[in-house]
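Bumping with the actual sequence this time:
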Amino acid sequence: MSSDLVATFRAATGRDPEGVFSAPGRVNLIGEHTDHNEGHVLPFAIDRRCRVAAGRRGDDIVTVRSAQEPGAPVTTTLEALDRARGWSAYALGTLWALREADPAITGGWDLVVDGDVPLGSGLSSSAALECAVALAIAELGGSDLDRHALARAGRRAENDVVGAPVGIMDQAASLLCRDGAALLLDCRTLHGEDVALGLDEVGLVTLVVDTRVRHDLADGGYADRRAACVAAAEALGVPALRDATPDMLGRLDGDLLRRARHVVTEEARVHRVVALLRDGRPADVGPELTASHASLRDDFEVSVPALDAVVAAALDAGALGARLVGGGFGGSALVLAPDAAAAEIGTAVARRAAAGGHPEPVVRAVRPAAGARREDVGLPG
């Protein structure tokens, strides 16, 4: 794929790119909707990546081309980056945010992107694009911004240009994760710790089941949940819901109670899962995943029937645990299962989806992978 990207860049611009950079999608093992409440999350990067071939220009023009969006490139100027719309807003917004963070990043760019992170499936294709672009521009542009700063730039692009009020988890995972490990990330401080997953050693596999029910985090549902969390924290007199305790919840009612109860219980689940993994007990993580799904379904109310069907079918077919991942309202479910049961689980979720009139799901085994990097494609320098 990287060699094809170089050829595409060469054909479009008449020169070689200065470098090819890639960043992975991610799946969040546990800790859903705790990130925008300044809590803890436990994502791992997956072996699906977005790649960008990049080269500097001598003017103030920026062009972006995508293998997934054939046709003419999106072309704009440095002054108009924050007015980008559509898919290009993720890339152009990241450049805008980087220039805001580091005025030393100057001049125009040619960018060509491609990737195999499924779009709209809860695996954070948007953050993969943002982080690949951020790393390319920072390295080629001579910036001294560290990876935490690059993550913040990606998040700012999504918040302020795309209009999706996401937390920092996706970008941090894409930039900071290490091969074979999840990242215990404190979303308030951005302090991260590697947590070995140890799945291969005990014959476990993680499956991501894409329901093919698409979602858009820039729509109202996600923003409503986030606003409810802010309101609940204000009602409780805490800076964010990560600071709330179970005994405080009795002071809330209605939607605010349900939203806060999910965050408080999910934060506790993150720490229990970390303890299990550090104790070498990954199989015992399963019930925590299933409890997370119930909380996301009943208290946070971001599940949909297709996701509930996948979770139920997977558990009936031998999964150790399963839950929706990502923002919700569609997308994917994560299934933790014995490797020997993976095929039967795939058959079972397809059968259950058909019976419920849902789209045929796509089942993918994913492995923990390394974060963003420069690709070795044999370019000079």
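The tokens above came from a reply further down the thread. The longest helix spans residues 254-278.
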